[in-house]
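sorry for the late reply, my laptop died twice this morning and i had to redo everyting from scratch. anyway the thing you sent over, i finally got around to it. pasting the sequence first so we're on the same page, its 136 residues, then the predicted structure underneath. double check i copied it right bc i was rushing
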Amino acid sequence: MEFDGASLDGLPWFLAYMATALVLTLFYVVIYMWVTPHPEIRLIRENNMAASLAFAGSLVGFCLPLGSAIANSVALVDCAAWGVIALIVQIAIFYVVRLPIPKISERIEKGETASGLWLGAASLAGGILNAASMTN
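ok and here's the structure:
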């Protein structure tokens, strides 16, 4: 089997989409931690399972539609625009989740796993629906 280099023709586009995804994900993490009243990273460092579940669900809930945007976009700008939409949807989900549990951040800070799981699962469910909506 010979290597002709053709298999690497898409490498520049791979790198461009991966870099865009990493920048959008970092931007999402910064915005999410700014919006939420509880200090996710500190709580996770302190082994707070509720904070870890909430943050992990939110991150995956953002990356699912971002992956869908990458797979279905026609241009890098298109992908970035849909990535920003995914970010907005995830932030909106955080506010919607607070409606039935207004003090969810305080509960997460106290380590109440049920609150963290609720926020993480709602974020994940929202991300799945967001990703599916991007394909139509």
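The chain has a mean pLDDT of 94.
thats about all i looked at so far, will dig more tmrw
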